[in-house]
Design a protein that fits this description.
α4 packs antiparallel against α5 (about 260-270) and α11 (about 385-465) packs antiparallel against α12 (about 465-475). This protein is flat. The longest helix has about 80 residues, at about 385-465. β6 (about 85-90) and β7 form a beta hairpin. The strands form eight sheets. Strands 1, 2, 3, 4, 5, 6, 7 and 8 form an eight-stranded mixed sheet that branches. A seven-stranded mixed sheet has the order 16-17-9-11-12-15-18, with no helix packed on it. It has 29 helices and 31 strands. It is of the alpha+beta class and about 900 residues long.
């Protein structure tokens, strides 16, 4: 039985794709020997094409996906077989097929006879120029090596060292392959082999016809007696910083300096970046020597001393009240009695001491002056004449007697004047009543006259009805009254209809799901239509829809922006509600809770989006009836206190017109959606906006669309959907295939309870807080501020996402992924600039994201750089 390296040849088109394996080399011990044409013929004598057909059931979805995952055009795989393992490959007419042989790919994969490169001691070699990312700094390192597949094992070239092996992964978001060296987790070291410890083999293949291109691969095998080595890749800055952290963490615990706990110190010593247990003795010695050289280097001595002294002083000030710090300082002075004198002789310290002595002298003078002033004031207070106090008391008693006498006289005068006042009031009332009687008499005569006139007019109307009706219709006053009355009557009927529908909505019976049940349900039904969407991606959309008043979906045309909105509306049961309520057919549309609006170019205000109040007809002219009905229905529900079901409005192609124009009335609600949120459509058409209403929007980025304004970006979640491959794109046709029996109506309470955090939860872990602060500080370098609005939104998002996300295929933990998503969707859309200096900053920012495990954000920034380099150094998130 032999082990062969072969190339995969794909033939045909979806769904009937054939996969053929053509052996080009054989693995013997730790050597790779390329097969000659004669050796290929001897190996497969009945195969005209010198290959083997890997058979599978192309109409079985699982097998088709498994073939796509393991094999691609011109990729290399390993196959362990003998001629007896193969079956003859015949056509339907009985003739032998050109491939000659076939074998069940599923069986061979299950038995482990077909394996990716990286087994049997053979690995792909990735050259330095094929590494896209910063290998020693980035958490996820992208590679662009030809024909490498997910699952392959590779070595990465580093000068005269090959680091690895690393398993290759695939990121659907960027359609790229990567390795995860975990350098930080391995104390800033990589393992591998020096160049003289491995054998390199160059394999080539050409299809044989004249002018056919030649494909080449570089594979390598460690020598039989080779042992892995450890390469130190820690930088000087990280080494010094780790040294500081090691000291601080090693001698401080619970606010107390611990220098006597030897076992704890040793344990921390073994776990430190400098002396970690996984480090070899050679690496430890090398790092200690580097630290000594750094601290003793003349060109770096100032910075080193400043760093160390600042660090030690900060520790002493911070823990100055600790008893063992005091003991340590006393022991230090006893051991070095000349230390204080030496410190005082220092120019900087002596200058500081002089300044403090001058300040002390000034304070002493001020204190003497204050004491003198206090004594003088006390003496003046004692010198007050006691007899003067007695005289004042006597005077006060006399004034009190005079006050009582005057009060008695005033009371007597009030009684006398009260009678006179009553007589005057009665006289005035009599005169007023007489005037009122005279006025009513005159008014009565006028009414009698007007009544007679109206009777005469009525008789004339009866005698000439058609002429008089025309006159009335064109009488301005009467026409206005009639129009207003008709409008009021119509509004009353409409309001009654909305009240009736609201009562029916309130009567819908539904069960509230727990957060875990809701997440399981959403993932299950949405993956029916979007099997390529991960659990994290679905939870992310659900959180943004629930927490944000506006969620924007961005991406290339055809990536499924509109369809995912429709799928979510279907999954929440928003289109199912109309079937659960008995109402007239013309009211069914008003009951639905999902409205899709196609935005048109040229919209400039809410008149285009909703409509406007017509002062001539005294009615509201609707530009979009469904939007008006939605706002009216939600207003009625809010007044009745019924917040039972979510309501989603989709703005499709939202940036065909400037959103801040036609959607401006809703922008303020983004910040303060609450009990008093209202939108004014004109006149008396002021509708309350409940917390159940949320907008989603899809945008494209080309010359036919408008740019989103900074104030809109500051208020919205921007979800960027990944590009789809051909197979994923073909599945978009099944977007509405959620079986009706699978759909449940989800209450607003269930959504709110699952995806809205408690205020106390909105705090990062210390490690992520440090990461977040470093991101914000880097943004400030280019004047990109993180507003309080965004800061609160990110922390609210993280509180929920970190709880329900799961570890991804790069082994990144949920809290880090949650922060990564939040930064990608709330901070990165603000990025924009131009020039080489801005490109340098973007690369530093991408490296910062990658080193902190923010892989999605790092990928987006790299994409911004690539697109900007194709557009004359003009870098934008949206382009």
């Amino acid at each position: 039985m032999g082990i062969y390296i072969g190339i995969i040849e794909k033939k045909g088109y979806d769904p009937t794709v054939f996969f053929n394996f053509k052996p080009i080399a054989e693995i013997q011990s730790t050597q790779v020997i390329q097969l000659t044409a004669q050796e290929q013929e001897a190996l497969l004598p009945e195969s005209e094409k010198r290959n083997i057909c890997f058979t599978y059931s192309w109409n079985v979805d699982n097998e088709r996906r498994r073939m796509d995952a393991n094999f691609s055009e011109k990729s290399l795989v390993l196959f362990e077989f003998t001629l007896e393992d193969l079956q003859p490959n015949f056509k339907a007419n009985g003739d032998r097929n050109q491939t000659g042989y076939k074998v069940s790919a599923m069986e061979m994969l299950d038995e482990g006879k077909i394996r990716p490169v990286g087994n049997f001691g053979v690995y792909f070699a990735v050259r330095k120029n094929e590494v896209v990312s910063d290998f020693t700094n980035d958490t996820i390192v992208e590679i662009e090596s030809p024909c490498v597949l997910a699952g392959n094992q590779v070595f990465i070239e580093m000068d005269d060292f090959w680091a690895g092996p690393y398993e290759v992964g695939y990121r659907e978001y960027t359609s790229s392959y990567y390795v995860k060296p975990q350098i930080k987790e391995h104390k800033y070291t990589v393992s591998g082999y020096s160049s003289d410890q491995i054998k390199q083999y160059s394999l080539s293949y050409s299809e044989g016809y004249w002018g056919a291109p030649e494909t080449q691969w570089l594979v390598l095998c460690p020598k039989q007696d080779a042992t892995p080595e450890q390469l130190d890749v820690i930088s000087d800055s990280v080494l010094v910083e780790s040294f500081k952290d090691s000291i601080e963490s090693g001698i401080i615990a619970n606010g107390l300096v611990k220098i006597d706990d030897v076992p704890a110190l040793l344990k921390h010593y073994e776990e430190s970046e400098i002396m970690g247990a996984i480090l070899t003795d050679e690496t430890r010695r090398s790092r200690l020597n580097r630290l000594v050289n750094i601290m003793s280097s003349e060109e770096d001595v100032d910075d080193t001393l400043r760093t160390i002294t600042d660090f030690i002083c900060d520790l002493l000030v911070k823990y100055q009240d600790s008893p063992n710090v005091d003991e340590w300082l006393q022991a230090l002075v006893e051991k070095h009695p000349q230390l204080l004198d030496q410190l005082q002789s220092s120019q900087a310290i002596s200058k500081h001491i002089t300044e403090l002595e001058d300040k002390l002298e000034t304070l002493t003078t001020q204190r003497g002056e204050l004491e003198k002033e206090i004594e003088e004031t006390r003496q003046r207070a004692v010198s007050i004449d006691q007899q003067a106090i007695e005289a004042k008391k006597q005077e006060m008693l006399e004034r009190e007697e005079e006050y009582e006498a005057l009060s008695a006289r005033i009371e007597a005068s009030k009684k006398l004047l009260g009678v006179v006042g009553d007589i005057d009031d009665l006289q005035k009332k009599y005169e007023n009543l007489s005037k009122e009687v005279d006025y009513l008499g005159i008014h009565k005569s006028h009414l009698t006259s007007e009544t007679n006139s109206l009777e005469l007019q009525f008789q004339q109307l009866i005698s000439r009805p058609h002429e008089k009706m025309v006159e009335l219709a064109f009488d301005g006053f009467m026409a206005s009254k009639m129009l207003r009355a008709a409008a009021e009557w119509e509004n009353e009927q409409t309001n009654n209809q909305y009240v009736e529908l609201t009562d029916k909505v309130a009567s819908i019976q539904m069960s509230n799901k727990t957060p875990e049940e809701l997440i399981e349900y959403l993932c299950r039904v949405i993956q029916i239509c979007r099997p390529n969407y991960s659990k994290n991606a679905i939870i992310n959309i659900a959180i943004c829809l629930t927490q944000g008043f506006l969620t924007v979906f961005s991406g290339e045309p055809g990536c499924g922006k509109t369809s995912i909105c429709n799928i979510f509306g279907e999954a929440l049961g928003l289109n199912k509600i109309a079937d659960m309520i008995e109402c007239p057919a013309d009211s069914k549309e008003m009951v639905g809770r999902y409205v899709a609006v196609s935005v048109e170019r040229g919209w400039t205000s809410k008149r285009d989006f909703v409509g406007y109040y017509n002062p001539l007809s005294k009615t509201f002219d609707k530009s979009n009836r469904r939007i008006y009905n939605a706002l009216h229905q939600l207003d009625t529900e809010k007044r009745a206190g019924i917040l039972k079901l979510p309501y989603i409005i989709l703005l499709d192609e939202a940036n065909l017109s400037p959103m801040e124009y036609y959607w401006s009335d809703f922008m303020n609600i983004c910040d303060d959606l609450g009990p008093h949120s209202k939108v004014n459509l004109g006149e008396d058409y002021v509708f309350g906006v409940p917390e159940t209403l949320h907008f989603v929007a899809t945008i494209n980025n080309d010359h036919t669309t408008e740019t989103l304004s900074p104030r809109l970006i500051d208020r919205a979640w921007i979800i960027t959907l990944p590009q789809l491959n051909l197979r994923d794109y073909s599945s978009l046709g099944n977007e509405s295939n959620i079986p009706a029996e699978e759909v449940e109506v989800i209450s607003w309470k269930s959504l709110r309870d699952a995806f809205t955090p408690v205020k106390d939860e909105c705090f990062f872990t210390p490690e992520l807080q440090k990461c977040y602060e470093s991101i914000v500080a880097k943004l400030r370098e280019k004047k990109f501020t993180v507003s309080p609005r965004i800061d609160i939104a990110i922390k609210r998002y993280w509180a929920i996402a970190s709880k329900y996300f799961e570890m991804d295929d790069t082994k990144t933990v949920a809290p880090t992924i949650a922060l990564d998503y939040a930064i990608a969707q709330r901070i990165l859309p603000k990025i924009g600039g131009n020039g080489e200096e801005f490109e340098k900053w973007l690369k530093e920012f991408s490296s910062l994201c990658s080193s902190n495990g923010l892989n999605t954000s790092a990928a987006i920034v790299k994409d911004i750089i690539e697109r900007g380099n194709q557009q004359m150094k003009y870098y934008q998130f949206f382009c």
